[in-house]
Design brief:
There is one protein chain. By secondary structure, the protein is an alpha/beta fold. The protein contains ten helices and eleven strands. The N and C termini lie far apart (43 Å).
Length: 314
Amino acid sequence: MQIARWTVTGDVAAVLIQYNTEQARLFASNPGVVAVVGHAGSRDALLGAAVYNAQGVPNVVPNSTSARLARSGPWTFTLVPNDSVQGEFIAHYALDSLKVERIGVLYVGDEYGIGLRDGVQSALRRRQTALAGATMILSDGCWTRRGRVVFGPIVRAAIRRAQPDAVVITGGSANGWCVADYVHAANPAIWILFSDGMDGARIIPPSATHIASARVRGVTFWEPADDTLNAKFLKRVQPALGRQPVASQALQYDAYMLVAAAVRDVGPDRRAIRNWLESLGRTRKPWLGVTGPIAFNRPRSEILRMTGPEEEER
């Protein structure tokens, strides 16, 4: 079995729509491609899933949480709980573990951010608690000179309006830390709750000078377990990375190994692979990966967990 990769460059908007769709069409039209792992990100995954379901290509999505993927068709299989499940987890954690009363959301206005905002709001509503406030933020550029002009007033205004005890931030990477820094500059007592895009909020960057690390938590889908599978995974990938892998990488690894297991079991036939994947948790036992048992008859809510910055765990 061979793995094909696809890399493109160009304008961000064009890459997002044109190239993701083109990538999916090229894979789907190649009879030698028996399954696809990816795409990364909710919007990218949705663009790809539309093509793969139309062309009958098994599509294992490691990281995307969009609930819309479940409606893409029977050829798409996700390894992580969707926005609604994650939103419920975050809301319950805030209410039950942190004992907060007012929860706000700062969200990026894409499929990922909107889905998580709605997931948190729905979970709070079921708990007869209203969302204190929801404010849309830009997707990137927070640390730039222009970002300092734009993000600061948006965050401060959101905090004044909502008066939250906890703020859920759906941004990822550096931008999420920058937004959190503005929140704690306004009020360091507010709990920061990151969604999974921050991979557990482990490392606070030096540029985030206002963050009170004891008030930061982040959703993650995986931490190394003390078992043979995880030991082999770490031994295999940690030297190449130069550090411990994060949850998104563990999920990507599981996705590739899952497809490989299907091909070994039923051969390089697209429909047979799809049927094999669908049978996990139904007529076949769940497949055991480094992130835990994988089956597609229910959400994998058991892999959700909250972690904090590394200095808080030492």
